Amino acid sequence: MFDQNAGGRQMFQGDWECSDCGAKITELPFEPDGSRPIYCRDCHQKQRGDSGGERGGSRGPRQMFKGDWECKGCGTKITELPFEPDGSKPIFCRDCYKSQR
Protein backbone atom coordinates (compact mmCIF):
# COMPACT_ATOMS: atom_id res chain seq x y z
CA MET A 1 0.00 0.00 0.00
CA PHE A 2 1.28 3.49 -0.74
CA ASP A 3 0.38 7.07 0.10
CA GLN A 4 1.42 10.49 -1.18
CA ASN A 5 2.86 12.82 1.47
CA ALA A 6 2.61 16.62 1.34
CA GLY A 7 5.80 16.87 -0.71
CA GLY A 8 4.35 14.64 -3.42
CA ARG A 9 6.72 11.76 -2.75
CA GLN A 10 5.24 8.30 -2.91
CA MET A 11 5.35 6.67 0.54
CA PHE A 12 4.77 2.97 1.21
CA GLN A 13 2.92 1.83 4.34
CA GLY A 14 3.83 -1.45 6.00
CA ASP A 15 5.05 -3.26 9.09
CA TRP A 16 8.85 -3.57 8.92
CA GLU A 17 11.71 -3.75 11.40
CA CYS A 18 15.02 -1.83 11.28
CA SER A 19 17.83 -4.22 10.34
CA ASP A 20 20.16 -2.51 12.82
CA CYS A 21 18.26 -1.60 16.00
CA GLY A 22 14.98 -3.50 15.52
CA ALA A 23 12.79 -0.38 15.68
CA LYS A 24 9.34 -0.62 14.13
CA ILE A 25 9.06 1.07 10.71
CA THR A 26 5.60 1.83 9.30
CA GLU A 27 6.42 4.12 6.37
CA LEU A 28 9.20 4.17 3.77
CA PRO A 29 9.88 6.20 0.59
CA PHE A 30 10.39 2.92 -1.30
CA GLU A 31 8.86 -0.53 -1.30
CA PRO A 32 11.35 -3.04 0.15
CA ASP A 33 11.83 -6.17 -1.94
CA GLY A 34 13.67 -8.15 0.73
CA SER A 35 17.00 -8.15 -1.10
CA ARG A 36 18.59 -5.43 1.06
CA PRO A 37 18.39 -4.42 4.72
CA ILE A 38 16.15 -1.51 5.72
CA TYR A 39 16.94 1.01 8.42
CA CYS A 40 15.01 3.43 10.60
CA ARG A 41 15.80 7.12 10.08
CA ASP A 42 18.39 7.24 12.89
CA CYS A 43 20.25 4.12 11.76
CA HIS A 44 20.11 5.26 8.13
CA GLN A 45 21.78 8.55 9.09
CA LYS A 46 24.36 6.66 11.14
CA GLN A 47 25.06 4.34 8.17
CA ARG A 48 25.50 7.29 5.79
CA GLY A 49 27.68 9.25 8.18
CA ASP A 50 29.93 6.38 9.22
CA SER A 51 30.37 4.73 5.84
CA GLY A 52 33.76 5.30 4.31
CA GLY A 53 33.02 3.43 1.13
CA GLU A 54 30.42 3.68 -1.57
CA ARG A 55 28.94 7.08 -0.82
CA GLY A 56 32.16 8.83 0.08
CA GLY A 57 31.73 8.87 3.84
CA SER A 58 30.72 11.75 6.02
CA ARG A 59 30.62 15.07 4.27
CA GLY A 60 30.84 17.06 7.47
CA PRO A 61 29.30 20.50 7.82
CA ARG A 62 28.61 22.36 4.60
CA GLN A 63 30.80 25.39 3.97
CA MET A 64 28.73 28.57 3.82
CA PHE A 65 29.77 31.89 2.30
CA LYS A 66 28.75 35.21 3.86
CA GLY A 67 27.99 38.22 1.71
CA ASP A 68 25.50 40.86 0.69
CA TRP A 69 23.50 39.69 -2.33
CA GLU A 70 20.00 40.21 -3.70
CA CYS A 71 17.64 37.57 -5.06
CA LYS A 72 17.18 38.00 -8.81
CA GLY A 73 13.57 36.77 -8.53
CA CYS A 74 12.08 38.77 -5.67
CA GLY A 75 14.78 41.15 -4.44
CA THR A 76 15.11 39.54 -1.00
CA LYS A 77 18.41 40.24 0.75
CA ILE A 78 20.66 37.16 0.90
CA THR A 79 23.48 37.07 3.45
CA GLU A 80 24.61 33.44 3.29
CA LEU A 81 24.98 30.91 0.46
CA PRO A 82 26.31 27.32 0.19
CA PHE A 83 28.57 28.45 -2.67
CA GLU A 84 30.67 31.48 -3.51
CA PRO A 85 29.03 33.30 -6.42
CA ASP A 86 31.35 34.36 -9.24
CA GLY A 87 28.91 36.76 -10.91
CA SER A 88 28.33 34.55 -13.96
CA LYS A 89 24.84 33.39 -12.89
CA PRO A 90 21.89 35.03 -11.13
CA ILE A 91 21.41 34.34 -7.43
CA PHE A 92 18.02 33.28 -6.06
CA CYS A 93 16.63 32.97 -2.53
CA ARG A 94 15.53 29.49 -1.46
CA ASP A 95 11.88 30.02 -2.46
CA CYS A 96 12.65 31.48 -5.89
CA TYR A 97 15.27 28.78 -6.53
CA LYS A 98 12.72 26.06 -5.75
CA SER A 99 10.16 27.65 -8.10
CA GLN A 100 12.82 27.75 -10.89
CA ARG A 101 13.47 24.00 -10.65
Provide the fold topology.
Layout: E1 2-4, E2 10-17, E3 24-28, H1 41-50, E4 65-70, E5 77-81, H2 94-100
Antiparallel strand pairs: 1-2, 2-3, 4-5
Description:
By secondary structure, the protein is α+β, with helices and mostly antiparallel strands. The chain has 2 domains: 2-50, no CATH class; 65-100, no CATH class. It is built from 2 helices and 5 strands, in the order βββαββα. It has helices at residues 41-50, 94-100, and strands at 2-4, 10-17, 24-28, 65-70, 77-81. A hairpin with a 6-residue loop joins strand 2 and strand 3 (24-28). It is elongated, with a radius of gyration of 19 Å. It starts with a strand and ends with a helix.
Query: What structural category do the secondary elements indicate?
Result: alpha+beta
Could you give the distance between the termini?
Answer: 30 Å
Identify the strand order in the major beta sheet. 1-2-3
Shape: elongated
**C-alpha Rg (nearest Å):** 19 Å
Compressed to H and E, one letter per element, the order equals EEEHEEH
Uncertain residue segments? 51-56
Please tally the helical runs, counting DSSP H or I stretches of 4 or more residues.
2
**How helical, in percent, are the residues?**
10-25%
